[in-house]
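Two proteins follow. First one:
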Amino acid sequence: MSNIKKNFIYNIVYQILIMILPLITTPYISRVLGTEGIGVYSYTYSIVYYFILFAMLGINNYGNRQIAKVRDDKQKLAKTFTGIYAMQIITSLIMILLYIIYLKFFVHTNKYIAVIQIIYLIATMFDINWFFFGLEKFKLTVTRNVFIKLITVICIFLFVKQKGDVYLYTIIMSVGTLVSQLLLWPFVKKYTKLVKIEIKDIIKHLKPCAILFIPTIAVSLYKTMDKIMLGNMTDMHQVGLYENSEKTTNIITAVITALGTVMLPRMSNLVANGEKEKEKEYIKKSMEFTFFSSSAMAFGLMAIAPTFAPLFFGNEFNGVDNIIKYLSITTIFISVANVIRTQYIIPHEKDKIYIYSVSLGAIINIIINAIMIPKYQSIGAAIGTIFAEFSVMLYQIFCVRKEIDIVYYLKKGFSYIIAGIFMYVLVSSLYYIIKNSIVRLLVQFLVGAVVYLGISIYIYMKNSGYKNVMEIIKAYKH
C-alpha cells in the first residue's frame, strides 16, 4: 500500500475517532452544562482562538510546505525547523502577554473561564504538528492524539457532573491539548535537531508566514466570528445552539478534509520536483472522492437531522436540527475548496488566490451576519456561513479554471450531488412513516447508505469504464 493511502487511512481513523467521541460526550455535556454552559465555553474559547491564530501566524500551512520541500536535506531541514519554531516561540510569548492584558482590562463576565482558556494559548507555543505533517509522519501524530482524546473523554465523565462544572470542562479540554502538544517533542530528535541560527534565519520566514496568515484570519471571521457576533447580538443560549450545530457538521467535514492534510506535503514535494502528471492524477482522484463523500454526508445529515438532534442533544437544544440542515450544505463547498487549496494553490505558492478568496468570504459573512443575526439569530449565522463558503469555493474555482480542468470535475461531481438529493428525499420521507425515534434513525441510516452506495457505484463504473465491482477492488489494490 502506498504512503499516501497509509497516511490517508491514519487520518481517516483519527477523524472517525473524533467523530465517535463527540457522539459519546456531546449528549452528556449538553444535558449537564446546558445551552448556557456550552455557550460560555464556546464564547470564551472563540476569543482565545484569535490570540492563538496570531501566535501561529500562518505557520501550520507554511511550516508544512517548507518542511516538505527540504525534508531530503538534513542540514536544510534542521535550519528550517529551528528558524520557523523560533519565530513561533516569539509570536506565542507576545500573544500570551497581550491575552493577560485583555484579561486584566477587558473581561468583566465569565472571567474565571477566560483565565483558564490561556492554557490553550500556552499549548500553542509547543505545537509542532506542522513539522511532522511536512515529513508525512501521520502515524505518530494520530496515535498520540488518539491516546489523549480517550483520556480526555474519561476525565469528562469522571469530573463534569453539574451545570457549574464549566470550569472543569474547560480545564480538561485545554490541558488535554497542552499534553497532546508536549508528547510530540521527544520524537523530534529522531528526525532533526535545533541548531544555532542568526536573526535573519528567523526574519526570512516572517513575510511568507504573514502572507499565509491573512487567509487564516479571514477564515476565522466566518468560522469563529459567528459565535462572537451571536454572543454580542443575542445571548449565550443562541451561542450554545450554534456551537452544537457547527460541532455536528464539523465532524463530517473533518473526515473529508483529512485528505487535504495528507496531500498538502505530498503535492508540495511533487511541485518542487516538477512532477506535473502525478499532480493532475492526484487532483483527479481527490475531486471524485470529495464529491462522492461530501454529497453523501451533507444530504445524509440533512435527512436525519430532525430525528438525530432531539435524541442526541436533548430537549433544551430544540431548533438545532434546522441549523444543522443549513450548515450541512456547506460541507460540499468546503470539501471542494479544500482540494483546490491544499493540492494546487498552496503547493504552487499561489497565495494571493487563497488570500483573496477567504477575504471575500469573510466580508460576505460579516455583512450577512450583521443583517440576519438580529432577526433570525443562529439561523442567520448559518445563512452567513453558507454564502461565505460558497463564495470562497466559487472564487478559487474561477482562478484555477485554466490550470485545472475544473469543469470536467464539476460535471462528474454533479452526478453524486443528484444521488445525494435522491437519497435525501427518500430518507426524509421515513420521518413520517416510522414513529419510534431510535428505530427510525437506524432505518434512515441503513436505507440512506444502501441507496447512495448503490447509485454511486453505478456512477463510478460509468465514469471509469469498469464493468463490475470486482474490477474496482482489483484496481484499488494496485
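Second one, unrelated to the first:
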Amino acid sequence: MIFIAGSHPKITRYRCTRLKHCFRCNNDSYWVLEKQQQFLSLFFLSVLPLKTTYLCSCPVCGNTEFLDREAFEQKVKEEAILF
C-alpha cells in the first residue's frame, strides 16, 4: 500500500486598521497580522495541525514581531480586518 504524506502551510492574513510606527524603517503604516499553520497532510487532505505561528509585520520593510495566541486574538478582535 502506498501513502502520500507531507505538510503544507495555511496562512490567514489580517490588516490592522490603526497606524503603527516601525522603528526599523521609520514609517507609519497599517501592519499585517498573520496566522501561519503547518498541517500534516495525507493524500492531499489536511489531517493534523503541527505548528501555529502568530506574526505582526511591517508591510514596508518586513520587520516582524512574534505574538502569542492571546495577543494575536486580541489584536484581531480590536483592530483588524480580513484581507
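SUMMARY FIELD: The chain has one domain: 5-82. The beta strands are 5-21, 28-42, 45-57, 64-67, 80-82.
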